[in-house]
Write a structure and sequence with these properties.
Length: about 230
């Protein structure tokens, strides 16, 4: 039986807890106390407090400050570097970037060595030389066959023949016989493409032609001399 009041023999009260109404749920868990009846009891109130029930002076709870990252301690020392990770997969090729600005002009280069000077009679023929050669060759063709049109482009011209072509020549490939003489007088068209078959050789350089101009051509054994017909 519990004791909730102690009186002396002269009527003085030393202790009186009969009016206490403390309950176990109001006392921390594990703490011993006596109730109003003087019985020994043990508190059952949990000593763990929820972060939502702890308030700061600004009205926010512990949990709110934790969620907002405000409860951060001083920065600790830098930890050691971790091991390198594995290389990731190669990504797709990116788009081509815009063209950059034009660079500055470079310095002028050094002057090159002098070039080779061609020698007349060895490396080239003059227009006068070619005209003379053609004229001499023509004078030797006394029994040449007279023709006014060329064969189809790429076909072999007739040996020992004289062609005075009546229509302008556009796209055409001359193919001369391997032996014999051939004379051709023709005029280029406004648009043309004149070439020579494989195996043709030339007196001087490879002939060059211009539009709407008349030329004389002499070939002997597939060796060609060409001259433009000009007025004095």
């Amino acid at each position: 039986m519990g004791v909730n009041r102690v009186d002396t023999i002269d009527g003085r009260t030393i202790m009186d807890i009969s009016g206490d109404n403390v309950q176990p749920e109001n006392v921390d868990e594990g703490v011993m106390f006596h109730d109003g009846a003087g019985e020994r009891r043990t508190g059952t109130r949990s000593t763990t407090v929820s972060a939502d029930n702890v308030f700061f002076s600004d009205g926010e709870t512990f949990q709110q400050k934790l969620d907002e990252g405000e409860l951060r301690g001083p920065e600790g020392p830098q930890g050691p570097a971790g091991a390198d990770g594995q290389d990731g997969e190669r990504g797709p090729k990116g788009d081509t970037g815009e063209t950059g600005p034009k660079g500055d002009k470079g310095d002028k280069g050094d002057t090159g060595d002098p070039g080779y000077t061609p020698v007349r009679g060895t490396d080239y023929w003059t227009a006068s030389d070619q005209s003379t050669i053609v004229s001499q060759a023509v004078s030797q063709i006394n029994t040449a066959t007279k023709l006014t049109s060329l064969p189809s482009s790429g076909n072999v011209l007739t040996a020992n023949a004289e062609y005075r072509v009546s229509s302008n020549v556009g796209t055409y490939q001359f193919n001369f016989p391997s032996s014999g003489d051939v004379y051709v007088r023709f005029k280029t068209g406004s648009t043309f493409s004149i070439s020579f078959s494989s195996g043709t050789t030339y007196l001087g350089a490879v002939p060059k032609f211009e539009a709407n101009k008349t030329y004389e051509l002499m070939a002997r054994d597939k060796c060609v001399a060409v001259g433009e017909v000009v007025s004095a």
